[in-house]
Write a structure and sequence with these properties.
Blueprint (H helix, E strand, L loop, with lengths): L3 H10 L35 H13 L3 E5 L2 H17 L3 E5 L4 H10 L2 E5 L11 H7 L4 E7 L10 H11 L2 E5 L6 H4 L10 E5 H4 L7 E5 L5 H11 L6 H16 L1 H20 L4 E2 L5 E5 L7 H10 L6 E2 L3 E5 L6 H13 L22 H5 L3 E5 L30 H9 L5 E5 L1
Parallel strand pairs: 2-3, 2-4, 4-5, 5-6
Antiparallel strand pairs: 1-7, 6-7, 8-9, 9-11, 10-11, 12-13
């Protein structure tokens, strides 16, 4: 597998060239930290080593084209939304309600409106094909869905893509948590998505901020690159680009090893289930522990795990998420098994499902965000119109969107579940 970016960086770092260019570190600590020097290509208008590496990665994913992102899947999501608007000339997006805040920030910046599609479960990705069909209108540019949500729930991409083809709209998939699906055969592109945003850094061996924007139709490449340059830094990190280049070689050459790791995580889930560890169904690279079933709150269980030498991806009131990578050492899985078996169990706790709240929409996200605003205590916000993007992280999903009226239920959720004390509202 060729690694054109990595090979160029190695050659440049070893050349002894006097660096009379940015960045200011001059390669002393990070020899591969360069800018767009002669031969290094240009990320948003690439014809050389970056273009070659992107083509290699596209072939691995079965994409018509792939764009590299040094701004994480936030940049990939914002770029594919902008590209969809540009390609279609339409200005509405139908989207799963519990989407990452990058969708909402794109709506604020680009001025499109969002028609929300609600799942049956709070923070869930699983929206029905019928609900998708009902949300599509004459001015819908695209449908936006989560392939995998933060707790590991998954959308039926194949069924939703069939609806989108029937209705003649693009399907955009936030696959930030599913880049590893290149190995398992259920990647959103394979299932019919038109564009996907994949965080290489979440489940593959790449640096933080490394992401892909995959396009099923290569004719959308120029629109996607133009959109990416709209949101992205004009000084992309070559350290991240190098990691994406090397990640392509990993995908091409170590498929069997990656699939063995996937199967080990599956085996670990089966073994934990036999031992009475309660879990929420989740995707292949995640174990979502149901702490209530073990007699703990999520935060208590996370503390028990930390005391035994491991750090979870996230914890909430009920769930604790353990996130794995395709290069996770086998000893780590053995350690997780040992830790979870030894944590004391108590009588199960009982809790009702978190209610799916459907706020009243008053203004568009852009109108609300750029309106005159004030910051007030959440406890005094009922009846007011939200003016900001309030998205506790993780999972970085806004509970109330800019332009929506804050109800008593929403205010209670923000204070009780997320400990949010103040919120921006329109004047």
């Amino acid at each position: 597998m060729n690694t054109p970016i990595h090979d160029f960086l190695e050659k440049y770092a070893g050349s002894g060239t006097v660096r009379l260019h940015m960045p200011g570190g001059k390669g002393l600590e990070y020899p591969f930290d360069i800018t767009e020097t002669d031969g290094a290509d240009e990320l948003y208008d690439c014809t050389g080593i970056i273009a070659e590496s992107e083509r290699d990665t596209a072939a691995l994913y079965g994409a018509g084209a792939t764009c590299y992102s040094c701004g994480g899947s936030t940049l990939s999501i914002q770029a594919m939304l902008a590209a969809a608007l540009s390609i279609t000339g339409k200005h509405r997006i139908a989207a799963g309600r519990y989407s990452h805040k990058s969708l909402v920030s794109a709506a604020v910046l680009l001025g499109f409106d969002i028609d929300w599609i609600y799942p049956g479960e709070f923070l869930g990705a699983d929206i029905s094909p019928d609900a998708v069909r009902a949300a599509i209108g004459a001015d819908t540019a695209a449908v936006f869905v989560n392939s995998v949500d933060y707790l590991g729930g998954q959308s039926d991409i194949a069924a939703i893509s069939a609806v989108c083809r029937e209705q003649g709209v693009l399907l955009l998939a936030d696959n930030a948590h599913g880049a590893y699906k290149v190995f398992t055969g259920d990647h959103p592109l394979t299932l019919g998505a038109d564009m996907t945003a994949d965080s290489a850094h979440k489940t593959l061996p790449a640096l933080t901020g490394a992401s892909y924007l995959h396009l099923a139709d290569k004719s959308h490449y120029k629109a996607a690159k133009a959109a990416m340059s709209l949101f992205g830094s004009s000084s992309p990190s070559y350290l991240i680009l190098d990691s994406l280049d090397l990640c392509a070689r990993y995908i091409a050459e170590r498929r069997d090893e990656a699939l063995r790791t996937v199967e080990r995580v599956r085996e670990l889930k089966r073994a934990l289930s036999v031992d009475g560890v309660t879990m929420k169904p989740s995707d292949d690279m995640r174990i979502t522990l149901d702490a209530f079933g073990m007699g703990h709150t999520g935060r208590e269980l996370a503390r028990e795990i930390r005391l035994r030498g491991a750090e979870p991806e996230m914890c909430g009131e009920r769930y604790v998420v353990l996130l794995f990578s395709t290069v996770q050492p086998e000893r780590d899985l053995e350690t997780v098994y040992d830790i979870l078996r030894k944590i004391p169990r108590h009588a199960p706790l009982h809790g009702s499902a978190v209610k799916v709240i459907k706020p009243e929409k008053v203004l568009s996200p852009r109108e609300a965000f750029f309106s005159r605003r004030e910051t007030i205590p959440v406890g005094a916000s009922a009846g007011r119109i939200c003016a900001g993007i309030t998205s506790p992280c993780p999972p970085c999903v806004p509970v109330v969107m800019p332009g929506e009226r804050i109800s008593e239920e929403l205010a209670e959720m923000l204070t009780g579940r997320y400990n949010v004390t103040n919120i921006g509202v329109t004047i």
